User: Fold these one by one.
Assistant:
Number 1:
Amino acid sequence: MPMRLPSRTTRIACVVAASSLAGCGVSQQQEIQLGQQEAQQVNAQLPMLNDATVNSYVNSLGNSIAKTTSRADLAWQFAVVNTDVVNAFALPGGFIYVNRGVLSRAANESELGAVIGHEIEHVVRRHSVKQMEQAQGANVGVGLACALTNVCTNQAAQAAIQVGGTAIFARFSRSDEQQADQGGFQNEIHAGLNPRGMLTFFQKLLAEEQQSGGGGATSSWFADHPGTQDRIADVQRMLNETPPNVLANLRSDSQGFQNMKRRLAQLPAPPRTAAR
Ligand SMILES: [Zn+2]
């Protein structure tokens, strides 16, 4: 069942954001504040996977990647949503959410690192903040909040926090996604991870999507990330452009990843949720 955010909460979110974000630029402090507010909502509304082994591994991998970026100073936090739906999302300020469906499909650390590295890049490039800053008009405060949460522009009835998490903040443009792939690719390399995982993971999702004929656990990924075939071609090109001796020195997997996978397999199945 899709999760719905009560409209009262929606209004409060808009008012809070309107008062704190009025003005042209969004400072780092405002960005973090907004991210914290959104993270609180997400944590309360989505089924979170609270398992020490899994969470500590995902945080350690995520931080090892984030610390190599130009925004290493953020207090990055990584959390796992307990759903088989394949998706991941980033809130401003460094709050990254990865769905369990990504963890269960990733075969090695470089595949998971690709998804996390991509989400990190959205934050590094302040993609959602830029959308807020570009909002114009008398209703600028509300506009800012809506650009971020996507709840005001939609009908109240659509004010759903989808399990993929995508309804609570703006969708990114194709070019933002491309930048996040390129940056995510580099982020992996800087963290010592082989970015080939980005290619194999996208290929895997595409195969699953084609097999399911849409409407399966991967459909929300494809709705949020159009042009997956183009992205695969881009990643292939980036791999071709990376010197083989660089790739040869990067790790694809770790004991920590495999321990996390074993732990994940022992946990009760995620609650059943609608794909979208
Ligand atoms: Zn993205």
Number 2:
Amino acid sequence: MKTYPFLKVLIKLYWLLLLIVLGLFTVTITNTFLSEETDKTIAVTTTSKTNFSTISPELLGSVAAGKKLFRTNCATCHNKNMKSDMTGPALAGVRARWSDYPESDLFAWIKNATKLIEAGHPKAVEIYTKWNKVPMTAFNNMTEAEVTAILDYIDSVK
Ligand code: HEC
């Protein structure tokens, strides 16, 4: 048969063409799949950026941090209902009671009451005398943010 070699070439070409088409098809599918994967990765990254666990307690809410600090440092002497006296006075409305003085005085009291009493601060001496000179623990290492958080928490308890 004279046409046989020609047909053989034609069949070979046919297979080659089919492989090219299949190859292109595979590449297109793979690309679509990959770009979808990339989109998913971006979406996950964006979500984790707003994940609450990455936000510091101060930003999440001073009150939540303040509650924790109050429970561990102050609740042994100050009632957590803020209304009844215990070893120390009820703390509800404490900011208002100190409002004749700059708030830094109240901060100074919480950080080191004895220091303020010894310095002769009128408000400090007044409470100390009223409370039969029971000394309050000093919290020298407490930061401004932590004291603010505790005071915000005290204000939030109704
Ligand atoms: C060992 C007990 C004790 C602990 C712990 C304690 N306090 Fe006191 N606190 C007192 C006493 C007692 C007074 C009353 C004044 C005095 O006698 O020194 C007082 C007074 C105060 C006052 C003044 C109240 C007013 O009416 O003006 C504030 C504010 C205060 N405490 C905040 C705190 C905070 C905040 C903490 C925790 C970080 C804390 N205290 C921990 C015993 C304590």
